[in-house]
Design goal:
The complex is a heterodimer of chains A (110) and B (114).
Chain A: E1 4-7, E2 10-14, E3 19-25, E4 32-38, E5 44-51, E6 56-59, E7 62-67, E8 72-77, E9 86-93, E10 104-109
Parallel strand pairs in A: 2-10
Antiparallel strand pairs in A: 1-3, 3-8, 4-5, 4-9, 6-7, 7-8, 9-10
Chain B: E1 4-7, E2 10-13, E3 19-25, E4 31-37, E5 43-50, E6 53-57, E7 64-70, E8 73-78, E9 87-94, E10 103-105, E11 109-113
Parallel strand pairs in B: 2-11
Antiparallel strand pairs in B: 1-3, 3-8, 4-5, 4-9, 5-6, 7-8, 9-10, 9-11
Classes of the chains: A mainly beta (110), B mainly beta (114).
């Protein structure tokens, strides 16, 4: 059974800092891994999807890495902005379904 | 231009009632999902349909019954609502495109059972 852990649970940093969010998963037999952001009271927005054969994926100021064999993924956010404040969720996909971590609640202070 | 839409956005009802949540996607995807996000913010899959066929049915009480009239719609009907059913329910869809399986989520339906 896949279990996903995200560390830290919450993070507060000043604007402009670069930061890393961590995700670990117990079953390395995955097809891909998605990173989402969830704003309070809103749905999930897909940020990045990394295929199991890929090591990295980039979109703007976001960079996600995947080390499937060790069951780890990181989301790097460069030059953070107050608008980046949200909960970030990682979700590896097995044969049929996504399994979500509990998320990292990120606050960027102006 | 909403990709995945859900109605209603909020639903407040009493214990014992029966209610439905509707979901529609205009992305042309062939797979749709229902997820439940509880008060602790854990997001867990409930059901998945591919081309109107049920492919995932997690350990969900049989008071919950999904129905897919066509590929673009997946509705969730809940009988005899209980306090513990209070949660946010998300619909999602995906397409097996080049093996990506990227999922797109709706805005959620906040169900409150009193």
């Amino acid at each position: 059974k896949q279990e996903v852990t995200q560390i830290p649970a919450a993070l507060s940093v000043p604007e402009g800092e670069n930061l890393v969010l961590n995700c670990s998963f117990t079953d390395s037999a995955i097809y891909n891994l998605q990173w989402f952001r969830q704003d309070p009271g809103k749905g999930l927005t897909s940020l990045l999807l990394i295929q199991s054969s890929q090591r990295e994926q980039t979109s703007g100021r976001l960079n996600a890495s995947l080390d499937k064999s060790s069951g780890r993924s990181t989301l790097y956010i460069a030059a953070s902005q107050p608008g980046d404040s949200a909960t970030y969720l990682c979700a590896p996909k097995g044969a049929q379904k996504l399994v979500f971590g509990q998320g990292t609640r990120l606050t960027i202070n102006p | 231009d909403t990709a995945v839409s859900q109605t209603p956005k909020y639903l407040v009802t009493q214990m014992g009632n029966d209610k439905s949540i509707k979901c529609e996607q205009n992305l042309g995807h062939d797979t749709m999902y229902w997820y439940k996000q509880d008060s602790k913010k854990f997001l867990k899959i409930m059901f998945s349909y591919n081309n109107k066929e049920l492919i995932i049915n997690e350990t969900v009480p049989n008071r919950f019954s999904p129905k897919s009239p066509d590929k673009a719609h997946l509705n969730l009907h809940i009988n005899s609502l209980e306090l513990g059913d209070s949660a946010v329910y998300f619909c999602a869809s995906s397409q097996v495109l080049a093996g990506l399986y990227e999922q797109y989520f709706g805005p959620g339906t906040r169900l409150t059972v009193t």
